[in-house]
Design the sequence.
């Protein structure tokens, strides 16, 4: 007899993590558990449109010290779809400007009976630090250039949804690899599930040392394009760079922007992805971003499903103890 617990992937022995801090430390089985749970949530909620109030009485707090459109809003909506309440904290407009420390700020929000804190910060390791300082679960929503685990998961979910199993697929991450938390989470997740991963961009943004993670390093998009099943086009993160990594944006676009001419050289069923925000005309031209191969907005919808799954898996054990309903 299926219960909400078994139906939506909370199996006590299969998921024992208190936090979701990165994909580096997850096993292939744990990745598949989150992805399969997300697929079930998407199906059970008419594509994440309807409510499934499994987490009534729980509270999720968004602690965002960096801007966000996709991640913050979709964590909020995911929690509300599950019947949980939300607290929204953004550094601008908060008492951080009065000198309150990171840990005091986080503990203050946690004291509002928060079960899950979703943390975005420009410094790598902040979610890990808060994972030790707080009693609630912590989810990394992007820590500087380090990791963005739910972005990696929603990217992988989108590839699986459109092209089937990850194993054997060739996925190229193109652009500002050096400063990309999306690149790191994609690499850990995709490699564990058996993909061949290529990182491609200018030499100033793609070091040969990426080969140590088991990925192929490439500097010419036109050369690798015919081999790729998926392109994930990453934004140039000027805000994290101290010096300009190439002479001009125009030159970058000439060599690396995915445009209609390059689409003619790609595989017939190539999947075009971007984590967003997208800069039209820099890493992708409008005809490709809005074209039939693009799944950029599907990625956003799958972000809701992945975040429902993550919040559910983290809160499941406490909900079980409190309500005894499972
Ligand atoms: N992809 C992503 O993290 O987008 P936001 O910065 O809008 O959350």
Sequence:
């Amino acid at each position: 007899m299926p219960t909400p617990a078994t139906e939506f992937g909370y199996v006590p022995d299969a998921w024992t993590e208190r936090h979701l801090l990165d994909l580096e430390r997850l096993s292939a089985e744990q990745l598949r558990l989150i992805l399969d749970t997300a697929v079930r949530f998407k199906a059970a909620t008419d594509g994440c449109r309807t409510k499934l109030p499994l987490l009534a009485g729980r509270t999720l707090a968004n602690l965002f010290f960096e801007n966000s459109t996709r991640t913050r809003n979709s964590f909020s909506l995911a929690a509300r779809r599950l019947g949980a309440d939300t607290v929204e904290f953004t550094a601008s407009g908060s008492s951080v400007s009065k000198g309150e420390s990171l840990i005091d700020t986080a503990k203050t929000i946690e004291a509002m009976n928060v079960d899950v804190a979703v943390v975005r910060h420009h410094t790598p390791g902040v979610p890990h630090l808060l994972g030790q300082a707080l009693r609630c679960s912590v989810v990394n929503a992007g820590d500087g250039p380090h990791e963005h685990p739910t972005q990696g998961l929603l990217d992988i979910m989108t590839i699986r949804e459109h092209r089937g199993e990850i194993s054997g697929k060739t996925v190229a991450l193109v652009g500002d690899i050096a400063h990309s938390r999306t690149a790191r989470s994609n690499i850990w997740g995709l490699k564990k599930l058996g993909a061949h991963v290529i990182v491609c961009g200018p030499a100033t943004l793609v070091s040969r040392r990426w080969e140590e993670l088991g990925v192929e390093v490439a500097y010419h998009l036109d050369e690798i394009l015919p081999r790729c099943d998926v392109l994930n086009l990453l934004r140039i993160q000027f805000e994290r760079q101290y010096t300009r990594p190439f002479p001009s944006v125009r030159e970058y676009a000439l060599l690396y922007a995915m445009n209609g001419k390059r689409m003619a050289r790609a595989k017939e069923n190539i999947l075009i992805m971007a984590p967003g925000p997208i800069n039209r005309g820099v890493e992708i031209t409008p005809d490709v971003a809005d074209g039939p191969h693009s799944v950029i907005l599907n990625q956003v919808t799958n972000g809701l499903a992945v975040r429902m799954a993550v919040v559910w898996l983290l809160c499941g054990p406490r909900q079980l103890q409190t309500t005894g309903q499972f």
Remarks:
- Residues 4-147+301-323 form a domain with the Rossmann fold fold (CATH 3.40.50.1370).
- DSSP finds twelve helices and nine strands in the chain.
- The CA atoms of residues 233 and 274 lie 5 Å apart.
